[in-house]
Specification:
The chain is α+β, with helices and mostly antiparallel strands and 256 residues long. The chain has a single domain (27-245), classed as START domain (Alpha-D-Glucose-1,6-Bisphosphate, Chain A, domain 4), CATH 3.30.530.20. The protein has helices at residues 2-32, 38-42, 68-76, 89-94, 184-223, 233-238, 243-246; strands at residues 56-64, 117-118, 127-133, 137-141, 156-166, 169-178. It has a six-stranded antiparallel beta sheet with strand order 1-6-5-4-3-2, with helices on one face. Strand 3 and strand 4 (137-141) form a beta hairpin. The longest helix has 40 residues, at 184-223. The chain is globular, with a radius of gyration of 21 Å. The chain starts with a helix and ends in a 10-residue tail after the last helix.
Length: 256
């Protein structure tokens, strides 16, 4: 009997060890740089200096068939009490986030300032806005006291970056950099739960932004007809969305 139990335990340990080894050597390197090129992974971005030597870092990227002006508005309105995160809201609401993902631009959230706060969860400390470079970068996060570091999300940065490929194409990059507390428990929590969970949610978020931005760009193009305005294609792409473009009314509420 004891031998059978020991054999089962040994088998379980071997299987678990193999799973962890496979994750850390194959899956983790893939999701840490999902969609990003070598140059994008190595590039220094605004806000990187806040956490110069992170224990954990991930850079994700995708291409959006829309101008920067159609992508930026969705980024600056992220937040639990704002436009949501365009991800799996049903999962977020299971842990008490109480949010809805906006499908339209919220005019009251379009002028972020350094020092503003962005909520992730009603009961969690908000993330301060550290960097705002309009139509280029917005970075959230910061540092906390050493005694508060354990599992605190504010010991790192979360940055959103947009780059113009051409007048109708944008590269969206998201980067997270953070430090973890020392110890095996912290390692297991960060590597085996926090990182993969963040990837799953952020990948969905990026796809949600892509879908919304491309729909917005299409709506703007449909409104532009020859003879309606004397703009070049490039100038038109850079125009900020109007209320008519966004389907907004004067009595716009926070959520649809």
């Amino acid at each position: 009997m004891k031998r059978n139990v020991l054999a089962r335990v040994a088998t379980g340990v071997v299987v678990a060890g193999a799973a962890v080894a496979g994750y850390t050597s194959i899956v983790r390197p893939w999701h840490q740089r999902w969609g990003a090129t070598d140059a994008e992974v190595e590039e220094r971005l605004p806000g990187d200096d806040v956490i110069p030597d992170p224990e954990l870092e991930a850079t994700h990227a995708l291409t959006i068939r829309a101008p920067v002006a159609s992508v930026w508005p969705w980024l600056v309105q992220v937040g639990q009490d704002r436009g949501g995160f365009y991800s799996y809201s049903w999962l977020e609401n299971m842990v008490g986030c109480h949010l809805r993902n906006a499908d339209r631009i919220l005019p009251e959230c379009q002028i972020p300032q350094v020092g503003d706060s962005v909520l992730l969860h009603p009961k969690a400390p908000p993330l301060p806005v550290l960097v705002v470079e309009p139509y280029r970068a917005i970075v959230l996060g910061g540092l906390v006291e050493e005694s508060e570091r354990l599992y605190n999300p504010t010991i790192g940065t979360w940055g959103f970056f947009v780059k113009e490929i051409d007048s109708q194409t944008t590269r969206l990059i998201m980067r997270i950099r953070w430090r973890r507390s020392p110890g095996l428990l912290s390692w297991a929590y960060s590597y085996l739960f926090l990182e993969p969970a963040h990837f799953v949610m952020e990948r969905k978020m990026m796809l949600g932004i892509k879908a919304r931005a491309e729909a917005l760009a299409k709506k703007q193009v449909e409104r532009h007809r020859p003879g309606e305005a004397q703009y070049s294609d490039c100038q038109w792409a850079r125009l900020p969305p109007t209320k008519a473009d966004l389907g907004l009314r004067d009595d716009t509420h926070m959520f649809r």
